[in-house]
Amino acid sequence: MDTSTHTFSALFEQLGLASDKDSIEQFIRTHQLFSNEVALHEASFWNESQSAFLRDAITNDSDWAEVVDELNNSLHA
């Protein structure tokens, strides 16, 4: 069983996005969610599989949940 903690970079890789530091920072800057009423997985910039992954990570409290929550906080900042 994999008990390692997933990194922010690994999450971006899992989502099929560029995962280097500069690309992550740019993504966060350009995809801010200005309303707390918009759930992370409901944001318009995700494709269907990305949205499902994010929703399932939180709903199922998967091993990705902590880093997905970190992404949520970063985009709602």
Automatic annotation (TrEMBL):
Gene3D superfamilies attached to this UniProt entry: Uncharacterised protein PF10982, DUF2789 (1.10.10.1130)
InterPro entries: DUF2789, DUF2789_sf
Alphabetized Pfam families for the sequence: DUF2789
Source organism superkingdom: Bacteria
Record protein name field: DUF2789 domain-containing protein
